[in-house]
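Tokens as discussed.
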């Protein structure tokens, strides 16, 4: 009952309330983005949603306009393209606020696997195998509270997403939501671009040297 009805009802309720309460802060963020660098305040792109269907995805623009459009952030060179305001927005996850409109429209949910670009074929293939594509993508999800940017193993990430999709409950969503707030406030697991891949490489090298 929760998965089929109440989850969507709560998405509509809380995304609407969120938009109303955060409207003025969002307008101020838009102004800050515009003043900081050239380009639109809202970054619009296409992401893959439920059942592999593409949808329009919104974020506050945190990068320069010459940044690659359809490249996963973790594959970019560090924070090369990130603006000054963008660094703050990404660290605090405030750049994600426009996705409240995606939730209200029904393309996303508050809790679910994070939506990715179509070029992330490896992750999408694994998600198809684990059943993670059978649910709406989320503002936050199980994989985010288990590692976020530091979770670079695509198969493991898809398995975690699939684990969530197989058993969706109010209790699980409640825990993920409040755990996300805690992690955001601490700034935990936020790594820019390919720094996380370099970090993984360094960790692997250190493990080999210590073995």
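Sequence:
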């Amino acid at each position: 009952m929760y998965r089929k009805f109440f989850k969507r009802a709560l998405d509509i309720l809380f995304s609407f309330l969120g938009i109303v309460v955060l409207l003025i802060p969002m307008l101020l963020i838009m102004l800050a983005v515009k003043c900081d660098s050239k380009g639109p305040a809202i970054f619009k792109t296409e992401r893959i949603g439920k059942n592999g269907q593409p949808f329009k995805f919104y974020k506050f623009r945190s990068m320069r306009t010459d940044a690659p459009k359809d490249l996963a952030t973790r594959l970019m060179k560090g924070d090369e393209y990130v603006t000054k305001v963008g660094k703050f927005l990404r660290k605090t996850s405030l750049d994600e606020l426009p996705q409240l409109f995606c939730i209200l429209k029904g393309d996303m949910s508050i809790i679910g696997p994070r939506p990715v670009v179509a070029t992330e074929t490896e992750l999408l293939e694994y998600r198809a195998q684990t059943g993670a594509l059978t649910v709406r993508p989320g503002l936050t999800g199980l994989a985010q509270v288990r590692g976020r940017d530091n979770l670079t193993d695509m198969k493991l990430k898809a398995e975690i997403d699939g684990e969530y999709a197989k058993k969706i409950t109010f209790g699980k969503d409640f825990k993920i939501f409040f755990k996300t707030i805690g992690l955001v406030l601490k700034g935990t697991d936020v790594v820019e671009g390919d720094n996380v891949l370099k970090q993984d490489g360094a960790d692997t090298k250190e493990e080999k040297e210590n073995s």
